[in-house]
Amino acid sequence: MVIALTEEPSTSLRTVTLQFKVFTFLKNILITVVCSATVITTVVPIVLAKDLCSLDYDTYGLTATEAYNYITLHAEKIFIIDLREPSIFKTGHIQGARNINFLHNDFNYEIYKLDRNEIYLLYSDTDDDSFTTALMMLEMDFLSPYFLKDGLRSWRKQGLPTVK
How many beta carbons lie within 10 A of that of residue 56, not counting itself? Predict the structure, then answer.
């Protein structure tokens, strides 16, 4: 459809212009909401974790050997949580691990549902996500959220077993 411009814009051109302005306005609101949600769910937990970092990293961090020995002696008392994406989890994980994807939208809720009185060992490929999660769990009054220092990479480097 071709709209000819005259000195006085036609009603259909005014309608199209108004629709475009409304669309642009709504698009900008949507972008603002999405960006705000991303900051709240991504940056705020990291800021909280940095405030909590006054807790000694070694208090809740276990080396691969320490974690393996604890799992071997107390398998029925510890819940192992793999924080990696499900497709990566399927390629190999610590035996008995449950997968809760750190990057999933429902991650905080999945952690919230866990029993605060249990002992947890958290891990991912490195210790960034697991340390952040351990600190978040401490803020949520979990008693024993431990994490694997240097993540599953250190576990594998020590030659410790994984399953598929």
Answer: 8
CB-CB contact of 82 with 99 (8 Å): yes
User: Residues 55-96: pLDDT tens digits?
Assistant: 567 788 999 999 999 999 888 889 999 999 999 999 999 999
Q: Extract the tokens encoding 130.
A: 């697991």
Which secondary-structure segment (H or E) carries 144? strand 144-148
Res 57: pLDDT = 73
Provide the pLDDT confidence category of residue 37 given band limits of 50, 70 and 90.
very low
Both tokens assigned to 41: 């769910």
Q: How many Cβ atoms are within 10 Å of 76's Cβ, its own excluded?
A: 5
Cα–Cα distance for residue pair 108/138, rounded to 1 Å: 13
Number of Cβ within a 10 Å radius of residue 11: 8
Residue pair 119/78 in contact by the 8 Å Cβ criterion: yes
Residue of 71, 97, 96, 100 whose CA lies nearest to 85: 100
Answer left, alpha or beta for residue 108, where phi above 0 means left and psi between -120 and 50 means alpha. Answer: alpha
Rg (CA), the chain: 24
